[in-house]
Amino acid sequence: MERTFCITLFSSWLLLAFIIQAQSRPLDVRSFGAKSDGVSDISPALTSAWKKACDSPTPSKIIVPKGTFGLGKVTLEGPCKAPIELQVQGTLKAPQNPSLIKVGEWVTILYLDHFTLSGGGTFDGQGAIAWTQNDCSKTSECNKLPNSFSFGFLNNSIIRDITSKDSKLYHMTVLGCNNLTFSHVTITAPEHSLNTDGIHVGRSNGVKILDSTIGTGDDCISLGDGAKQVSVTNVVCGPGHGISVGSLGKFKNEEPVVGFLVRNCTLINTLNGVRIKTWPASETGAVTDMHFDDIIMRNVSNPIVIDQEYCPFNHCTLGIPSRVKISKVSFNNIRGTSASAVAVKLVCSKSLPCDGVHIGDVDLKYIGKLGNITTNCVNVQPAFMGRQNPPICAQNRNAQSS
């Protein structure tokens, strides 16, 4: 009887192990009909694999193997019963014609806990046609072109070891997320690709961007309203418009931006360095607890910027001050070369001057031929620590001493 009991127990264990193994076996999209011919749309296969993974009570992995696959507009949505990893090893190509994606994003990922996107693969947005349709320079509203990614309401999740190439508009947008990490991500698009921001974070808490390389036609990283406790570490940015907070104040009921740490980053051949920007004649808002530490600038125009008169293409009213309050900002150990004579621009609001601006060691050399390196400071009285080259806000200091 004891032998029979042991055999039964062992058989039950084998059955359980088989079930667990079957449930945890990776789901290859080819098993759901995906073809790696670079043309056929694999979104139905990916959606079917996603449904099976989402319904699984144990953690699942979906694999897009090496090869080139076409991918139409797709939404991968939870909540799911267990964590899911989407491992993209190959290249996924978006439709070249933006109208084939219609409204929204190319890839939308929503309402998940403990989600992972990985694999070393490439998402190719094929944005060249879309860039010719971008009319931001002519009107105050851009064409509604599709972003490559929308990450919405993800918790405790990670995006790692993937490449986003040639998005039609933004590469990645983040909204309503908590504790989301980007690690070893590569984002690339030509310098002339308008509004192809790398990673845009809004209304999210605890977003980390680590050990990544971003080069686009707009901001490498940008923060919108409601971004809180965002950190950027060991990121190389360029080409592009730099690392930016804003622009803010354009819309009513924008949430405060609180807690931004950028450290140990390198910016190369960018239009701006580290920047905070708000619209004049703006709605009310607040930006506080911003810190930029250990930044290398290489041939960067406008390396350090606070601009509360941000007015691209003159689509605004410059004579009315911004109503976004900026406070508790620090720039420390920022060094390298400036491609413009004005290396530091701190232009704050006349009605709400910047408070608590601290400037530590700064060493910037101008490599152009348009005179001597200078700084421009308006409606701000920074506190200084260490050494500054060039002397920052010299006119303010002279006014105080007289």
From TrEMBL:
Lyase in keyword set: no
Pfam families, sorted: Glyco_hydro_28
GO annotation (BP), single: cell wall organization
Name the UniProt record assigns to this protein: Exopolygalacturonase-like
Membrane-spanning residues: none
Top-level taxon: Eukaryota
Homology family: Belongs to the glycosyl hydrolase 28 family.
Gene Ontology MF terms in the entry: hydrolase activity, hydrolyzing O-glycosyl compounds
Active site: H241
SMART domains: PbH1
Taxonomic source organism: Cinchona calisaya
Signal peptide annotation: 1-24
Record localization: Secreted, Cell wall
Keywords for this protein: Cell wall, Cell wall biogenesis/degradation, Glycosidase, Hydrolase, Secreted, Signal
